[in-house]
Amino acid sequence: MMMAEKPPLHVAVLMGGWANEREVSLMSGAGVADALEMNGHRVTRIDMGRDVALRLAEAKPDVVFNALHGVPGEDGSVQGMLDLMGIPYTHSGLATSVIAIDKQLTKQALVPHGIPMPGGRIVDVEELHERDPLPRPYVLKPVNEGSSVGVAIVTADSNVGNPISREAKGPWQEFDRLLAEPFIKGRELTTAVIDSASGPRALGVTELVIDNGFYDYEHKYTEGRTQHVCPAKIPPEIAALCEQYALKAHEVLGCHGTSRTDFRWDDEQGEDGLFVLETNTQPGMTPLSLVPEQARAVGIGYAELVELIVMEAIRVHNIAGGADGEDHA
Length: 329
What we know:
The structure is a single chain. Strands 8, 9, 10, 11, 12 and 13 form a 6-stranded antiparallel sheet that branches. Strands 4-7-5-6 form a 4-stranded antiparallel sheet. The two termini are 22 Å apart. It has helices at residues 22-38, 52-59, 77-85, 94-101, 103-110, 125-128, 217-221, 236-253, 290-297, 302-320, and strands spanning 10-15, 42-47, 63-66, 121-124, 138-141, 152-154, 177-182, 187-194, 201-202, 206-210, 226-229, 258-265, 274-280. It has 10 helices and 13 strands. By secondary structure, it is an alpha+beta fold. The model is unreliable at 214-223 and 323-329 (pLDDT under 50). It is globular and about 60 Å long.
């Protein structure tokens, strides 16, 4: 998709950083930068350090493509900085980012709107070493990490002790507080949403079939560990419900550009077995990432997808007049 009809932009691609997902962000950013250059834009690649504001001020880009994953690129910190600097940026704004990266806040936002999510509660890790917070099996996950970083499934035969031993390997050794949720058996599904001038659009449903275990960080980013079935071989009513919930989550949270909502579906329970796990406001853009894959399935190539995300950032910024960070893309 060449840019003959529009003047080229100067786009700064923010990538890397110091979060657990640094390497994935570098891969996303490299792909995005290459696509933007192919589309005729001028690109400045920035591996984010503590001097990021200075580097952006020196670069003076027309727009920032935020290819960061995790904290601080996905939690509102970078969004607030860009708002103060008056620079348009891709993906969601400050308030949306703060809410969506926090799994408990996400539940508080979405469940009242009829979006089913697992129950559960936040626990201090010390409690885990005294008693189980929920009947086994249950899931433990960090409150504000992405890409299934630090997720553990505690089952009756888990080799972690009962109660969980302090010496057992798991997220309780890395985080002070964790979200405990009931384990939902069944299938992993995901739906991407992209924005345009005509409104948000759900791209379809992908099923993630893993070789063993569950869809953790390693399965997400190691080639061959997970099979992507796109479109998912599921009943039409379940696919329609996934798209409905993903669109609703995108709108309720106030997402911009693109988002991806992940589901767990107990196929023995039909529609009642479908639960939203989380909505990712900055989905990966690597060769193994799900949003580019779903876009390809509906005829949107990688370079075109990147272009759409950038143009949406410019469009929303222009509508807002650049005056309010939460109206940034």
